[in-house]
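Quick one - inputs below.
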Amino acid sequence: MVPDIGLIALVIAFGVSVYATLMAVNGEWSQQLRWVASARNATVAVFALLTVSVLSVVYSLYVMDFSQAYVADVSSTAMSPFLRITALWGGQAGSVLFWAWMMAGFVTVVVVRKWKENAALMPYVIFVAMLTTTFFVGVVLFITNPFTKMWLVPGAQDLIIAIFQPANAQQYIPIEGSGLNPLLRHFGMIGHPPTTYLGFTGFVIPFAFAIAALLKNDTVSDQWIRSVRRWTLIAWIFLSIGLILGGRWAYDVLGWGGFWGWDPVENAMLMPWLTGTAFLHSVMMTEKRGMLKRWNILLIILTYSLSLFGTFITRTGVVGSVHAFSKSALGPAFLVFISLTFIGATVLLLSRWNALKSEHEMESIFSREAAFVLQNMLFLAITIAVLWGTVFPLITELFTETKITVGPPYFKQVTGPMFLALVGLMGVTPLLAWRRQPARKLLKRLAIPLIGSIAGAVAWAIFKPGSQLYAIFSMGMVFFVTVSILAEFWRGTRIRMSTRGENPVIALAKLVMNNRRRFGGYIIHLGVVMIALGFIGDAFYKQETQGTVSMGETLTIGAYTLRFDGLESYFGSDGREVVEANTVLFKDGKQVKDLSPRRDYFVVQEQPVSIAGVYSTPAEDVYVLLVGWETVSNQSSTFKIYVNPLINWVWIGGFMLIFGIMIGAWSKTRGNVEATYTLKQPDQAIGAAPLAQPSTGD
Amino acid sequence: MTDKSPEMIDQLPPVETPRAHYWSNGVRFFSVLLVVGLIALLGWGLVQASKEPLEDGMAPDFTLTSFDGRTYTLSELRGQVVIINFWASWCPPCREEAAYLESTWRKYQDKGVIFIGVDYADAEKPALAYIDEFDITYFNGPDLGTRISQKYNIKGVPETYYVAKDGSLKGNQIGPLFPPKLDNRIDELLAEPYSE
Amino acid sequence: MSKRRFLFILLLGVLTALVVTVTVFAQDPAPTSAPLKAVSDNDVNLVAKKLYCPVCPNTPLDVCETTACKDWRAQIKDQLSQGWTEQAVMDYFVTQYGERVLAEPERRGFTSLVWTLPILILGLGLVVVWLVLRGWRNKRLSQSLPAAPPLIDSGISTAILAKIEAEIREVD
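Output:
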């Protein structure tokens, strides 16, 4: 019954989203607002209908309705109710529905909230966004339907999965489901997919606005670019959180002592994040200085295209990956869809290229603008390098019929220096003014961060003897940025203290709160520097050892010693067989923590999961894995120990990043933000049509 | 504080020089080419990923050197029925069929049937132990560089391919074989007429 | 020198070369009689880290927990203890299981492209940045517009900016 309601809602949702797409076109064509309004209402209806669909799947998961093939596939009685509900995004069919629902939600918010503000663009926005939504709803309905049932046909070997009863078939209802992949039973995996999907689907809004502006040829008014910035920021926030949660999940669950493996699917998520980040910076140039308009539109289109690309390679298994969903019939339809999107967007952008002129020119090489251009180029170069490494195995196979792997060494070596340059730019840019910065003044302002950086690097070299030069240089960069940013806080606070007589805490708080966007940005940068610390620790100072020890014996790594005290095994409540080692960790001979690394074996899924015993400090983690044991005697076990320096800074930096976003993103101070440059209003623009300045030579 | 800077004065639209024109056309062409190329690559990847194990047509030729140094080339075995079995020592389902395969081989070895065991991505020591364990006497060798497996598009192990006397592929078995399936297939293939 | 004698010497030379080549190339990476070296798990992991599991989806060999991977690590251990070099082990893996086992694509042949393109892109990017910056600057200069007063920061009002300037002057 409930699944039927969900299915019917899904069918209607598909019809209504087709209607919304067509009505948006019709409304613009006939210049009748009521059609556009109808398209808007249809959009809201699609969201409502998909909500019903999603709720019906959630309900089926909750009550364990194993007559539903999807429910039987991803849930089981052994799973807690909460975990069963999160299984909505634990498999292909549910997650595509979830995805379509989120996208419809975003579009709904846009059409409801931005109706007046972007009235002229609305038909186009609805058209682009609902076309995309229609595609995903269609995929849910026709290809990965979550409302299928299982049927037994006499004579046939396998079950038939279908919505409607095939001839002579009997419905098959298993008494137990197979249950969610054990690897996904972790808080990171519960939060990671929704946030990632919010990020990926969220990018459809800026994309729709950009395409709308191009279609409308609305290149003079810049109103839309502000909407776009906000929406990109929202999507970017979720994508950032998704990346951090994904990293945490990998660290806790995958049992290899790392948090970022440069797997194609991870890269797929990183690429839109990179271009999105580039856009959030370069859009400031458009807002404040009227520069780089084309570039921004290009970045928006690229960001969305890369999230589609990422979805494609994740869900079709084109590129071998640990994370790939099981193969499905999704591929061809998805390929057609992304081809249309990519080619359409490219052709549209190229045909409007000349109309998108920037108004302002840059004045000096030593200016914030110049730094932004360099920064954008680096982001794009990293994106290209990552994309290249991700698709290169395909290219090699195509041309040489040889399967190859492009693993972490490539990505680390190629992107490392570029990321480092970006970190450096984070330190230099706050010191540069817009337009131009007299060189003498720049040098003066550079002095303190430079001294801090050199002092820090020297101290680091002494503190960590035997460090590579590259590592010391990287640490120097980190110190440079930290000092440079903190100096900004210090400078502002002191001025407030002396001019307003405020105490330091109030001065700092008011400084930040009155310039939320700017200082929010600095806080985000501090978060990024902390994450960079984690990557430096991982790249240069990671240690590992492995060994087999008997009861009472020890294994040593650096200052740490691990004593093995015995092995026990027991059954977990949710169908897992656990083998757990009792160990004690010593540092410099002093006992610091009892660790219980274990290996869980999920019987039904035939899947082992390693759960590390971790001793965690801000300086380093000791990550102990139980990799083997003597099955007969339980007398000796094999352990792998990683010492991961600075790894916790990744998570601390993640929190810092989110905190900075919270400060900066919801800046109410619009006037303040645009203080230095007022964008032209549309009415002005009509009076002065040939406002465009000479081409910037591109 | 607004900043109505002097740059905002109206300008005439720029006159595009022919050189700039060619340049920008080149860039345009190149961008479209890149996008189309990427899509084509993904399409090709999709086709590759959805390729099914071979079932018919001529069986792709290969030469295999066995663990004990003998060499067989498929195309030189015309006139005989060839059973190609892909296996690995780390594969539990392979163990389910190993004894059956060997007994069938012993039954048919003098009747114009050749068994070729292709050891897919395996370490040599456990592979030899596996052969020893099941007392496998038919021809077995490592699939160097997984080239043979790639030719047959195998999806996993075990998989078995039936080659008729004329060298054509007559279907396959995905997953382990159980009696009397292999006997039946061999009997059918042996019954087929063949002239050189 | 007679023709026959010349041919004989030639033949001898070829044979010697052949024997030398054969002994060099057919040399087992380690003479089997050599004493077995003690090889720790760490030595094995050091090599396994540079290899990928040939059958798992995108998983490095040192962290892969399947039976097959354990066999391969055991194989590496055997080979190392027979005195094989790291390179010899890796070459063996490539011959046996194909190039896909290398975590790092080779820097020669077709796969060298993966390494060169990013460098080209970065170079190109730097050139473009330079051209764009120069283009903007030249244009501005040629338009000879009066330079606007430099603005230090964006988010702070002019009044505060003035104070900041004053403050900085005082401090300096």
